[in-house]
Design brief:
By secondary structure, the chain is α+β, with helices and mostly antiparallel strands. Helix content is 31%, strand content 27%. The chain is built from nine helices and eight strands. It has an eight-stranded antiparallel beta barrel. Helix 6 packs across helix 8. The chain is elongated and about 65 Å long. The termini are far apart.
């Protein structure tokens, strides 16, 4: 099976609580346990660190951002926060090298957060005075830039998972043909959910999901949904997530080639990326 047909994607994705100084994310897998009547929104920030500032950015995230997002999740304003490093593709010419994903069930909070950036600092780090906070906010500006932001919503998943997020994710940016997004997502759910459940049972991955791009949208958009494979060991990727065995287990009489001839199967793959989870915070289990 070609890698482009694996429908792997990850996790992300996501809300912008700190609009100018920070980048955020959450436990995207845990959020997939929500059903379609309780949508979850993923605010995704694509981030590029400035030359020579990679470690400085990581230090800011670890020492300050994580504390702020911990405060946000405990306060009930955020379901979680996740920071991913892009492992592939990589290099100085790539558009971004980190992806921040925040998850919320309150769509309004993505664009109209309760607290300003400075207020978020003060609440989470009360020992910092205004001067120190202003200095820290400037450091974020100096070490990184936010390339773009997107908002997704959850569509389906293979299985609900526990509270511990996966170490790696392989996500695929995909484009349903004009007027066929609903049909293509149904095609993903009807034809691939069982295969991914079998792959999880066989130890090939930890979860799989489909995310719909909500914003932004334009006529030249190169993708409108994502599929994601979550996994914990690179050997699972090397073994192609045990897809061959999963197909035999879930659909032994399946004609694989005909799946792509079914209504909605004529989608296009735009690009794939592998990411690694570096930092995260998630809401208490009773959230």
């Amino acid at each position: 099976m070609k890698r482009s047909c694996t429908h792997a994607f990850h996790s992300c994705i996501f809300r912008f609580i700190l609009m100018f100084s920070l980048f955020i994310s959450i436990n995207v897998e845990k959020a997939f346990t929500q059903d379609s009547t309780h949508p979850v929104y993923f605010s995704v920030a694509y981030i590029k660190t400035n030359p020579g500032k990679d470690q400085a950015y990581r230090d800011l995230l670890k020492n300050y951002s994580k504390k702020i997002f911990t405060s946000q999740t405990k306060g009930g304003g955020l379901l979680g926060w996740y920071l991913y490093e892009v492992l592939m593709p990589t290099g100085s010419n790539e558009e971004y090298n980190y992806v921040g994903i925040s998850v919320t069930d309150d769509f309004k909070s993505i664009f109209d957060p309760v607290l300003t950036t400075k207020e978020s600092f003060k609440k989470a780090l009360p020992d910092l005075d205004d001067k120190k906070i202003d200095e820290l906010m400037m450091k974020y500006v100096e070490v990184r830039s936010i390339v773009k932001r997107e908002v997704y919503t959850n569509y389906t998943q293979a299985v609900p998972v526990g509270s511990t997020p996966s170490k790696y994710a392989w996500w695929t940016f995909q484009q349903a043909l004009p007027g066929k997004l609903d049909l293509t997502e149904k095609w993903e759910k009807d034809n691939w959910t069982g295969i991914h459940k079998a792959a999880i049972e066989l130890g090939g991955m930890s979860n799989w999901g489909v995310y719909t791009l909500m914003m932004p949208y334009n006529a030249d958009q190169k993708y409108n949904y994502l599929t994601v494979n979550f996994f914990n060991d690179l050997s699972q990727y090397v073994s192609d997530f045990k897809y061959a065995d999963a197909i035999k287990k879930s659909s032994p009489n399946m004609d694989f080639e005909k799946i792509f001839q079914l209504p909605g199967g004529d989608k296009k793959v735009y690009k794939t990326e592998m990411v690694k989870l570096l930092e995260y915070v998630q809401a208490p289990s009773n959230k």
